[in-house]
Queue: 2 jobs
Job 1
Amino acid sequence: AVDDYEELLRHYELHETIGTGGFAKVKLARHRLTGEKVAIKIMDKESLGDDLPRVKTEIDAMKNLSHQHICRLYHVIETPNKIFMILEYCPGGELFDYIIAKDRLTEDEARIFFRQIVSAVTYIHSQGYAHRDLKPENLLIDEDQNLKLIDFGLCAKPKGGLDYHLMTCCGSPAYAAPELIQGKAYIGSEADIWSMGVLMYALICGYLPFDDDNVMMLYKKIMVDPKKRITVKHLLSHPWLMQGYSCPVEWHSKYPLCYIDEDCVTELSVFFKRSKASMSRLISEWNYDQTTATYLLLQSKKGHGKPVRLKRIPDVID
Ligand SMILES: O=C(Nc1ccc2c(c1)CCNCC2)c1ccc(-c2cn[nH]c2)cc1OCc1ccccc1
């Protein structure tokens, strides 16, 4: 119903639909106050059905994850029938399509991308999350040719920390670790490490290490016993990843949630006629509303050398 879109249209100018996935549609849009492009993932609650919890899992995870190689969630709008996730614009599309288009990547290009994947996965593990569905379809390319991890619908944040055993068998078979498809209790971070190995193989070779149309045959091929799987700590400074680099993979976030950018606070406080202190406090609540979106998109403008300014005249004169 049109009133589902009322709040969304107040803050964003909607443009073309660029993707219609399983239970979501992705539209391009522009944030009115900053002029920044965004992607909007639109889900209909009714047609989501049993997938609704997966969306809640994804939103809760993304609210806590702020990192240069994770697709940023800016704003969540929920109406009686719809859920809108306003997300970081990634015009390079999926890494999957990029590999297909190039057949396979050179070692140098694969190394650049893989260092970014290791950075993102190390960060989410440090925050107590396992992604559990790492594959080229879940890595997007942004306007600076950097990778951004998406789809946290299957992620897990075990209560007792990441060394807790998980049970749910999930993710894509071709990328699933042996212990996971054996239905054994597994460690989420170890399963992610296995998937990264499969991903690395796909980047370099352009096809999958274990593949078969028959899923039982596929499982048999994956059953290579994982003797000693590398840990993320050793991966960060693996010799192949270090080639041409003088430092291990930098995995810490460049934009930790606790750090609030002064220039953005100043512009917001002037615009919303609030003191800098109260504006800073409001931002730090991370409500994923218009304030969060405007702050993050101002920060993005600053990161791209654009002026940290908000539009004074609304585009559409009501
Ligand atoms: O900005 C996103 N996508 C996107 C934006 C512009 C363009 C393209 C793609 C490629 C197609 N040609 C037009 C240029 C974009 C951002 C976030 C998310 C997202 C974050 N969590 N979940 C989804 C999904 C996105 O898209 C999905 C997609 C659509 C068409 C193809 C390839 C990928």
Note: The two ends are 21 Å apart (CA to CA).
Job 2
Amino acid sequence: MNLFIDAGNTRLKWCLANQDEVLASGTGSLEDENPLGMSGELIGKVVSVAISTVASEERRTHLAGSVEKLCQAPVRFYWSEQSRNGLMNAYQDVSRMGADRWHGMYGAWLDHRQGFAVLDAGSAVTVDYVDRHGQHLGGYILPGLQMMLRSLRTDAARIWFDPDQGLATDPGKSTGECVNHGLAWLSAAMIERVIADARKLSLSEILVTGGDADRLIGLGLPGISCPDLVLSGLRAIHAEEASG
Ligand SMILES: Nc1ncnc2c1ncn2[C@@H]1O[C@H](COP(=O)(O)OP(=O)(O)OP(=O)(O)O)[C@@H](O)[C@H]1O
Ligand SMILES: CC(C)(CO)[C@@H](O)C(=O)NCCC(=O)O
Ligand SMILES: [K+]
């Protein structure tokens, strides 16, 4: 069995799979001693490890070391590419693009050939557009929800509030409401722009992934929820590499 890991800035997601089926999956944290939280029985089945990560070089090295030791299996990292199987990256320097974005787009490209947007609402939010020819048209990087809450709390001396996950966007009448409604209102505005862009660029689907995907759908994003988009892209690439 192969172990696949999508290691973001906050959490990591993993799945244990062979060519066509997923045996188990879960989430973990790079901070934990056992970053995967996998049982010994599952760990015993791992013969190779494939990782997509956007973590710092220090955390990446640490992860590689602990996973190698834990699984006694070779670890390979997969990065952004210029092109693959008809999907073409718009970046001139593809080594600068977060691997999660490329793997997410590739996961989407496998099943959606009519042009799509990928919205990954994680620690940071990314939006990427791919037309029906497989051409990546570019994208956007924005702060994520927790990041924005944290910066308001840290950088504005008189803003105290309890974060809520509410979806109300009407004008707030207390600090807490103004902050919470403000973030929902901002997300709603982003959603409107993505919808407008998708229409303008003739992209027929919006695929949503990341920890805050359901929140965006709750705010009216007409998107398809694909929680494992990055891992699907990574699995496909790993399989293609293995078959030569
Ligand atoms: N159990 C959870 N733990 C942490 N964050 C969560 C959880 N459930 C939902 N979230 C939300 O998910 C967001 C983080 O998303 P995700 O877990 O996809 O991040 P990530 O993959 O580490 O991020 P990135 O790839 O952007 O570095 C947070 O803003 C938070 O609001
Ligand atoms: C934007 C994030 C943090 C989203 O996870 C990640 O894709 C990343 O670190 N990207 C590097 C910069 C870039 O994609 O251009
Ligand atoms: K992610």
Note: The longest strand covers residues 136-143.
